[in-house]
Design brief:
Elements lengths: L1 E2 L2 E2 L3 E7 L5 E8 L5 E6 L17 H12 L4 H4 L4
Antiparallel strand pairs: 1-2, 3-4, 4-5
């Protein structure tokens, strides 16, 4: 897949944890030759306050819960330090 001279690749993100529990992200990307790369990454992330998390029995349920939790809040309110 290409558009405007750029090669478009599908990318998925996974979270790994070290034995001590420290999380890091892994980016998995498709390559034009049909292979995939899996690359450990450190990406600066700001986590929202704990009260903004959602728990569900499925991905869709967790996202639905999160939408309800975040409804009406600004980005500043979501990422405010507790």
């Amino acid at each position: 897949m290409s558009e405007g001279g750029f090669v478009v690749q599908k990318v998925e993100w996974f979270q790994f944890r070290t034995e001590s529990g420290e999380p890091f992200l892994v980016m998995v990307a498709s390559l034009p030759n049909g292979f995939f790369t899996a690359v450990p990454c450190r990406v600066p992330i700001t986590h929202a306050a704990h009260g903004n998390m959602a728990l569900g029995s499925s991905v869709d349920d967790a996202l639905r819960q999160l939408q309800n939790t975040l409804a009406g809040k600004t980005v500043e309110e979501i990422f405010r330090s507790e």
